[in-house]
Specification:
The structure holds 2 protein chains of 2 kinds. By secondary structure, chain A is mainly alpha-helical. Chain A has 11 helices and no strands. Chain A has one domain. Chain B has one domain: P-loop containing nucleotide triphosphate hydrolases (Rossmann fold). The chains are: A mainly alpha, B alpha/beta. Chains A and B meet through helix 1 and helix 5 of A and helix 3 and helix 4 of B.
């Protein structure tokens, strides 16, 4: 665990030294929040749209904004840089647990995720969005969003380890990107067309989105919240196992 | 370390083989290397480009899997007990592998902590090493701004954080100006005087001649000569006849079956020497 924390501290220092990267990570998701809400708010007026539970359409869109922000992690690109520069080999020659090499950078992604999602939610509050589940709900939204950031960045690290190329890692990220949109991001799942509903149902990201949405629009509804955490936990374990395996067999 | 391990050679390999399996062909990079490096010596590992030097070093430092054969470093089997081997070795590879966004001091403290030192011990050790490699004035600057020579010296310092028994250096002076090269040589001698065995790969024959107690020459994945520089020169003189000892360049060319003309294309340093 010590090695994970030592490497995590390094990754945090790195993030602090590149504040401009954080700005872009926040700008794009907020841009989509404004644009999507602007385009669809009239179609879904809060007074007559049941699934909004009395809130504006921006509250319904907030989860995709948070998931999008959490999916812009830099860990994989820093890893590729380290592989290309030879520092990754230097770390491999140190007797530290291989999981620490995976989790070190992800600690920083988690911390960044907490900061970013807190700022995004706090920025959204003055625009009429309320967190119906209260302060605990606020914390759960932030934690869920940060954990998703960690898992997503972990899968990107996997691509980086496999391809060892920045270009391939960037392209690889595009494979995961549609998962964010094969979800009930504009309307609830039961209002989707049948093929989209099937796609959303098998897409694990849907359960994260629905958990977050429930925390924003409803009181604490554990039947909707727990699947979101379950998905993150399951994907997190798969991500960690695959990464460790990849590093152990890295030649 | 047990008594048996203390008496063990610093590096021992038996029939070390590495094959790279491609889609259409298998490349035999190392084809059965037997080596024994004595504790406390500076051992030079020479060979032309593509001879198998770096591949051998990467296997010995646990960075590359071994196709067949055995390798032990400071008594630890690199396959069966890689973490033990990692604890006993320091590694500085061909390119100075450093994290460009950290300062020199941060990097050394971090390495100390990763090797199990407490934060205060790691800070103290970092300060000692910064003094050793004469980087105290640049210690709190980000590594990205270091010159090539400074990076190489910091890389060396990072490899020494945990006071390893065996230090592996893969072409540590390639690309350095003559002054920086001399500084690295001096540091290597000093490190060796403190009891660290040095396993050095180089293409600079003058470097091997100046620094190394014994050398091995690898070509085509096999060891073709092994001994002290004086022994290798004397051996060639005996076979060729004549009064004057040949140079190490001539030993190298003889061992690898190359002529100066061929060498000019393949091993620039040989032609320049």
């Amino acid at each position: 665990m010590t090695a994970t924390l030592v490497l995590g501290r390094r990754a945090l220092r790195e993030a602090v030294r590149q504040p401009d990267a954080l700005f872009m990570t926040m700008f794009i998701p907020l841009f989509f929040l404004v644009v999507n809400t602007g385009q669809a708010a009239k179609i879904f007026p809060s007074g007559s749209t049941g699934f909004l539970k009395g809130q504006g359409y921006a509250a319904f869109q907030l989860p995709i904004t948070l998931l999008l922000a959490a999916s812009f992690g830099m860990a994989a690109l820093f890893l590729v840089e380290e592989i290309e520069g030879g520092y990754f080999d230097k770390l491999r020659a140190i007797p530290i647990p291989r999981y620490a090499m995976v989790l070190g950078r992800l600690v920083a992604e988690g911390a960044k995720g907490i900061l970013l999602s807190s700022v995004i939610v706090l920025l959204a509050l003055p625009f009429g969005i309320t967190i119906a589940s209260g302060p605990l709900g606020f914390v759960l939204i932030i934690v869920l969003s940060a954990l998703w950031g960690v898992v997503y960045a972990g899968f990107m690290q996997l691509i980086a380890l496999k391809t060892r190329s920045a270009a391939a890692t960037n392209s690889g990220g595009l494979i995961f990107f549609p998962l964010l949109f094969l979800t009930p991001n504009f309307v609830p799942r039961d209002l989707l067309t049948k093929p989209m509903e099937v796609a959303a149902t098998v897409n694990p990201v849907t359960y994260l989105m629905e958990a977050m949405r429930s925390l924003i629009l409803d009181d604490l509804d554990w039947a909707k919240i727990l699947p979101g955490f379950g998905v993150v936990a399951a994907l997190g374990v798969v991500m960690l196992v695959l990464n460790v395996r990849m590093i152990k067999h890295y030649d | 370390m047990t008594l048996t391990e203390m008496q063990a050679p610093a590096v021992r390999t038996e029939g070390l083989v590495k094959h790279y399996n491609g889609r259409d062909l298998t490349v035999e990079a190392v084809r059965g290397v037997d080596l024994e490096v004595r504790t406390g010596e500076i051992f030079g590992f020479l060979g032309p480009n593509g001879a198998g030097k770096s591949t051998t070093v990467r296997m010995l430092t646990t960075l590359l899997s071994i196709t067949s054969g055995r390798a032990e470093v400071a008594g630890a089997d690199v396959v069966r007990n890689p973490d033990e081997a990692r604890r006993r070795i320091g590694v500085a590879l061909q390119e100075a592998g450093l994290d460009p966004r950290q300062t020199g001091r941060e990097l050394l403290v971090m390495h100390g902590e990763l090797f199990g030192l407490s934060p205060s011990q790691a800070k103290e050790r970092a300060q000692e090493l910064l003094a050793l490699v004469e980087l105290e004035s640049a210690a709190d600057r980000v590594i990205k701004g270091y010159s090539g020579g400074m990076q190489r010296r910091l890389d060396l310092a990072a490899a020494l954080v945990h006071e390893p028994d065996v230090l592996f250096l893969d072409e540590p002076t390639t690309g350095l100006d003559p002054a920086s090269r001399l500084t690295v040589w001096e540091e290597l001698r000093r490190i060796n005087r403190h009891g660290t065995t040095v396993f050095l790969t180089t293409q600079y024959l003058e470097e091997a001649d100046q620094l190394c107690d014994r050398i091995a020459i690898i070509d085509g994945g096999l060891i073709v000569r092994e001994g002290t520089p004086a022994e290798l020169k004397a051996d060639l003189r005996r076979r060729r006849g004549g009064d004057q000892d040949p140079t190490l360049d001539e030993v190298f060319l003889d061992a690898t079956g190359r002529t100066r003309e061929r060498a000019a294309g393949e091993v620039q340093e040989v032609a320049a020497a």
